[in-house]
Design goal:
317 residues, mainly alpha, 12 helices, 76% helix
């Protein structure tokens, strides 16, 4: 095997490994992908490649929540193919929206409301990510910015844990209100910045509201499905167009793509990174979900502070 081919495929394996472990922890997988590529080869792989590799962990999440998602899918099909079911769904969502509890079928209402909650919480990041994409591309070029975002994300998590401890025993409704869902969705917008962490931002938003940890973690991970999915589809189409037009993307690792400002990983390397991220993500997901649902995130705040300090010292030294 050519040395360059081996080097790029090894990089893809490392990136997939790091993605599979860090996606589900509040330490920012995007920041770690950027740092790993900087440490190993001194260049960035770019936002598109990061999002495609991250889609591997999306598949792991879908597989883990398959029973719930299958139930939601069948319910959605039933709603969209029956006027009676659609009217009932609209009634349930309106009832939830105004803060009432007038539901004829609680199980059906729970599914209707969950769909509405996921859609409502996803809308902010769709708009924000499209508006900020160019700025994010520029920010990730400087790892000092990543260190600062790691610090900011750590502060956010620390404050949310402090507030959560004081609000946990306050009376709350069983279902998150629309304004609470919107707040969590706005918190998710912060995750476009490399170093904040999507899971950390959404989990912090739920903890700020005083929601129990298990519910917060579950909603955070369900919310990741449309966010990661839309980002992955967007960048898959983008990379596909570049490949078909011969713009710096090749099927097999090519040395000339490493001479550019960014490392343009080949299609084969992206597939390898995707598959490794999926495999390691699936192995880690069950344990990590259980840990986050029963333990405070303080240890990750400490890790963030240490990592950010090391980065800052390495840049300024």
């Amino acid at each position: 095997m050519d040395l360059h081919v081996f080097k790029e495929l090894l990089l893809a394996i490392f990136l997939g490994l790091v993605q599979g472990i860090t996606e589900f922890l509040p330490i920012s997988s995007t920041a770690h992908l950027r740092l790993v590529s900087e440490f190993l080869v001194g260049k960035d792989i770019g936002l598109s490649a990061s999002n495609i590799i991250q889609a591997g962990t999306l598949v792991a999440i879908i597989q883990y929540f398959w029973a719930d998602l299958k139930n939601l899918y069948h319910h959605l099909i039933k709603v969209l193919t029956s006027k009676l079911e659609l009217a009932q769904c609209w009634h349930n969502i309106r009832t939830w929206w105004v803060g009432k509890n007038d539901f004829q079928d609680q199980a059906e209402a729970d599914l209707d409301i969950l769909i509405a909650q996921v859609v409502l919480a996803t809308l902010p990041i769709v708009v924000f990510a499209l508006l900020m994409r160019q700025q994010v591309e520029l920010l990730r070029q400087n790892i000092l910015y990543i260190a600062l975002f790691l610090l900011a994300g750590g502060v956010l998590i620390m404050l949310s844990e402090w507030v959560h401890k004081r609000r946990l025993n306050q009376p709350k409704t069983d279902k998150m209100a629309p304004w609470e869902v919107l707040i969590i969705g706005c918190c998710q917008c912060l995750s476009v910045f490399p170093g904040i962490s999507r899971s950390g931002a959404t989990l912090s938003g739920a903890l700020f509201l005083g929601r129990d940890r298990q519910t917060s973690v579950r909603f955070s991970f369900l919310l990741s499905i449309p966010a990661l999915g839309l980002a992955g589809i967007y960048d898959l189409v983008k990379v596909g167009k570049e490949f078909l037009t011969g713009e710096q993307i090749f099927l097999w690792p090519n040395p000339q793509t490493w001479s550019l400002d960014y490392i343009h990983l080949s299609i084969v390397s992206l597939i390898v990174g995707f598959l490794v991220a999926y495999a390691f993500g699936l192995v880690c997901l069950r344990w990590l979900l259980r840990y986050l649902a029963t333990n405070r995130a303080s240890v990750f705040v400490v890790y963030r502070l240490i990592l950010a300090s090391v980065i800052i010292l390495s840049v300024l030294w």
